Structure formats: C-alpha cells, structure tokens
C-alpha cells in the first residue's frame, strides 16, 4: 500500500503533527516542525516505511512533499 495517506502518516510521525496538516504544498521550513534536525527524522521514517536507503543527493532534493513523491518514484514507489 503506497498511497498518499501512507506518506502523509510518515510526515505526521516524523514531525509530530496532525496528519491533516500534511499536503503536497508543505515545504521544508514552511512550518516550525520541519527544520534540519526533523528532516533527518523524516528521512529515517521514509527509509523505514519504504525499506530503502536514500542517497545523499536525493535527501538534499527532498524539500517538499511533492519533491519527496518524485524521489520515491525513483526508488520504485508510485505515490497516488
């Protein structure tokens, strides 16, 4: 099950925010909860959930929910 709801739950767990607060327009540092330290927590949650190891160049590109969906597609996960 690789759905947008699953991805939103990953964000909610990583940032300890309500899942309803997560949408495709959410961007790095747009909310106080998404700072450089919590970004690392997000990466860990993504790697754990999707059982992948994300390359550094991809981590640096992951600046929004929309960009993360694009990166996950590279790893074989179509999020819809």
TrEMBL record:
InterPro entries according to UniProt: ACP-like_sf (IPR036736), PP-bd_ACP (IPR009081)
Membrane-spanning parts: none
Domain Carrier: 6-68
Domain of life (superkingdom): Bacteria
Record Pfam families: PP-binding
SUPFAM superfamilies: ACP-like
Signal peptide span: none
Gene3D superfamilies: ACP-like
Protein name: Acyl carrier protein
